[in-house]
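If your schedule permits, I should be very grateful for your opinion on a structural question. I have a record of one protein: its chain in single-letter code and its fold written as discrete structure tokens. Would you kindly read the sequence against the tokens and tell me how you understand this chain to fold? Thank you for your consideration; the sequence and its tokens are set out here.


***
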Amino acid sequence: MIKCPPFALQGHMPTSGTKSDPVGHALAQIDTAFRWRKPAIISSHRVNYAGHIDSKNRERGLAGLAELLQGIVKRWSDVRFITAHTLLQLILAR
């Protein structure tokens, strides 16, 4: 099984002075998983969506997540989003 690195936006967006592309990186990792016919597991932390200290952090996080999900559906139109529990049940059923 291939696990994508955590989908992290805080401190990694171009507005923070870096040239990092977390969405593009996640899509590349997902592509690798799918080429190996493995599930892509995307993990993310609530800090990407919390806005109690800086509301722009929440806006960036939600926008990045939307961009990632739209990119996945656009590239792999037959993709299925399932919970970790459902994935485990599928693996154990083999």
Notes: Residues 8-18 have pLDDT under 50 and may be disordered.
